[in-house]
Write a structure and sequence with these properties.
alpha/beta, single chain, six-stranded mixed sheet, 3 domains
């Protein structure tokens, strides 16, 4: 007997100005399976899932639920059919609490009054059952990106959804959180829930999915059983060429310190102690220094403090011999390139065009001006060069509004802009977040090339594979302090994990409840 399809998307076509995002795609999801959707940035994965969730209406094609044709005009229709979605870019209201975000639109009421206690009890039970620990009273704007993702998952579970769509769910999670999420997804599948899982991470797809559907440039390339394929085969299907999965680089030849940080402190918004607590390190020319750690241990605040997005409360920062501890963001930006953690909040102006975003820091330069006015021809020529060099895909080229681009192509645009500025220091925070293997290969190559040109690269990454492959030195942060320094050739992921969890420190002291 054939296995039962709970969802069938048949011959779906979705078009945007200048691009066919989904070109006659058929996808079938079986009950109780984890079905991965794999493809390059801009391949049409998120678009296809947005069609299923009612955010977009297809130009052609049919959706069936349990063998019956259904019309999904909006997310409320999807929710009524038991379909839930965790979006790559979260749909949360920053000024609301975690609890309010979870129950918004599905409030428990009696006689017209909100039953907060009942709602809270249900969320707490779900949180405990699936190991999704959150502070229900915290405002969303004050919690980490990883925590926001848990809120999105709880939001979906709160609505008793049976078909769960995860769009790049691990892009913002730590290795431990990823393991937990994988276990949770398997638990969901055991309970009979059906999961559609968009990911670029081949390790995760191999570990957790039952089947994989590969899309390339909006077309269906094939659907394969995960057990009968390999990472290399999937990456070749996805990109259409053979991809180098390991980083190739010569040993580093570090020179003088470009960035020196001494006794640096950044206050915490959430509690009284410092988020960055008396941190000292150097980043030298010609090396990639990586700060590793579990999300929420001060890495974000460290970068905000160094780039001027947050005020420091002590210590000294020197860039190329100049004290920039109290310099403005513009002055600091003159000496460093910054690939930010949050591409929407700090990386792009979403309602500007791609070409406008690519010259955000440089539009004052003479080459982009004529008589005090921006020279649009020069801007377009510059943008076109970067788009081709970094393979940034967009429906209308330089004139595309940034908001309409896929997350991965938004990220590629930021990286193109920042690396092309050729500053002595490159600060790269989660640079390959949400990128496919082909793009990751390209970006890793670019960062190594920057290092080999004699630039200093400060990398912050939650991806342990990236940390081990790309860095020349590794610092581990735990609770705002540097607890260890490592040579990637002389350590392994397990040892790093112990330091990241606070179980070990460089001084040999064991961290425990009594410590």
């Amino acid at each position: 007997m054939a296995e039962e399809n709970v969802i069938e998307m048949l011959h779906i076509t979705k078009e945007f100005p200048g691009i066919i995002a989904n070109d006659d795609i058929t996808l079938q999801l079986r009950r109780g399976e984890i079905h991965a959707l794999l493809g390059e940035n801009g391949a049409g994965k998120s678009t296809l899932m947005s069609v299923l969730f009612g955010l977009y209406q297809p130009e052609a094609g049919v959706i069936k639920k349990d063998g019956r044709e259904v019309k999904i005009h909006n997310p409320n229709d999807a929710t009524a059919l038991g379909i839930g979605m965790v979006h790559q870019h979260f749909k949360l209201i920053d000024v609301f609490t975690v609890l309010d975000n979870i129950i918004l639109g599905a409030e428990t009421t009696r006689a017209g009054f909100l039953r907060r206690k009942e709602a809270r009890a249900k969320v707490e039970a779900l949180s405990q059952r699936y190991g999704l620990k959150v502070d229900l009273d915290a405002r969303v704007e004050d919690i980490t990106v990883g925590m926001q993702q848990r809120v999105e998952i709880l939001k979906m579970l709160y609505r008793d959804n049976e078909i769960l769509i995860f769009d790049e769910p691990t892009a913002v999670l730590t290795p431990q959180e990823i393991d937990e999420l994988m276990s949770t997804m398997k638990e969901f599948a055991k309970e009979g829930k059906s999961i559609l899982f968009i990911s670029h991470k081949l390790n995760e797809i191999m570990a957790v999915s039952d089947r994989v559907t590969v899309l390339r440039k909006g077309r269906h390339i094939g659907t394969v059983d995960t057990g009968s394929t390999s990472k290399q085969a999937l990456s070749d299907m996805m990109v259409g060429r053979s991809v180098q999965l390991e980083v190739r680089k010569e040993p580093a030849r570090p020179g003088e310190a470009v960035l020196s940080v001494r006794d640096f402190c950044v206050p915490s918004k959430a509690h009284r102690r410092n988020a960055v607590d008396h941190v000292s390190f150097d980043v030298r020319a010609g090396e990639i220094l990586c700060v590793a750690g579990i999300d929420g241990n001060g890495q974000t605040e460290l970068i905000y403090g160094l780039t001027g997005l947050e005020k420091s409360s002590g210590g000294c920062v020197t860039l190329c011999g100049e004290d920039i501890s109290h310099a403005s963001i513009r002055r600091r930006g003159a000496g460093m390139s910054h690939i930010p953690e949050d591409r929407h909040k700090h990386g792009l102006v979403l309602d500007f065009t791609l070409e406008q975003n690519l010259v955000l820091q440089q539009y004052r330069e003479k080459r982009f001006q004529t008589g005090g006015f921006i020279n649009r021809g020069a801007v377009r020529e510059y943008a076109q060069r970067l788009i081709e060099q970094y393979d940034v895909r967009s429906g209308q080229g330089p004139a595309t509004v940034a908001r309409s681009m896929s997350g991965g192509n938004q990220q590629k645009a930021i990286i193109a802009r920042e690396l092309d500025r050729e500053k002595p220091l490159v600060v790269a925070v989660q640079p390959t977040r949400g990128l496919d293997v082909g793009a990751i290969e390209h970006i890793h190559g670019q960062l190594v090339a920057e290092r080999d040109k004699g630039r200093a690269v400060l990398l912050v990454s939650l991806e342990l594979d990236e940390v081990m492959n790309l860095s020349d030195r590794i610092l581990v942060m735990y609770e705002g302090r540097i607890v260890g320094e490592f040579d990637p050739k002389q350590t392994d992921v397990q040892e790093l994990g112990l330091y990241m969890a606070g179980a070990k420190r460089m001084d040999g002291e064991k961290e425990g409840k009594g410590a």
